[in-house]
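Feature request, filed as a ticket because there's no other form

It would be nice if the structure record came with a short human-readable summary line next to the tokens. Right now we just get the raw output. Example of a typical job, pasted below so the devs can see what we mean:
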Amino acid sequence: MTFTTALKIIKLTQNSYSQIADSFADSRFSSWTEIDAAIKKYVQPGAKILDLGCGSGRLLKSLSKIFNLSYLGLDNCNRLIEKAQKNLQTLKNNKLKASFVCHDILNLADLPEDSFNVIFMVASFHHLPSAELRQKVMANLFRLLKSNGVLIMTNWNLWQPGAKKSIWHNKLKHNYQLKNDLHSLGFKDVITLWQNKSPLYYYAFTLRELRQLFRAANFQILENYYVRRGQKARWWNGYNILTVGKK
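Raw output as currently delivered:
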């Protein structure tokens, strides 16, 4: 994929999230079973947390139960950050140090290295187009983690046969006209329509690709598998891919 196309896709997805922020946030309020399990396993009291692609702050509800936590949520959609800041006010945890900032996750140079114990990328990494940009982000994540820090990531499993947002449904229907303009899209580049009107980009990861990305960035892989409602699954029925790497 060309750099020009990648930038066009990033802007496309950002604009769509700005338009759908309210309905998107309202449809996502419960926690994820697999993420709750990962929090119990990897997040300790007093940890410093970075949540990249935080959206409306859905993750913070689960994290707020941990004592003396320091949390920073970043997202490039200002409207979702506004929603997250409002949601923060409803949490009943006076010891929680949390903030949300509108920030481009492709430009993390202003964050100091060795800053965080745990970094989350929940359903956000798959929005990054081009191998080069994904490698850049992975290198930054490794830099930002403290020694023995952990990266917890989920990506949608877009290989499920029959799923509406699967790669198979997307490639067969060809139902979004911009595809004709983005000549350098590959087979694993997927564009879906939120509520049949707002285009969102996803990359269809496989377990092997994620394993290679983590290892290339010098992460030790702790977990990497398809998951469905918190249980390990297969590629044909897993909803997400959970990947955990350690610095």
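Something like this underneath would help us a lot:
Helices lie at 3-26, 33-42, 60-63, 78-88, 131-144, 167-173, 207-216.
The mean pLDDT is 90.
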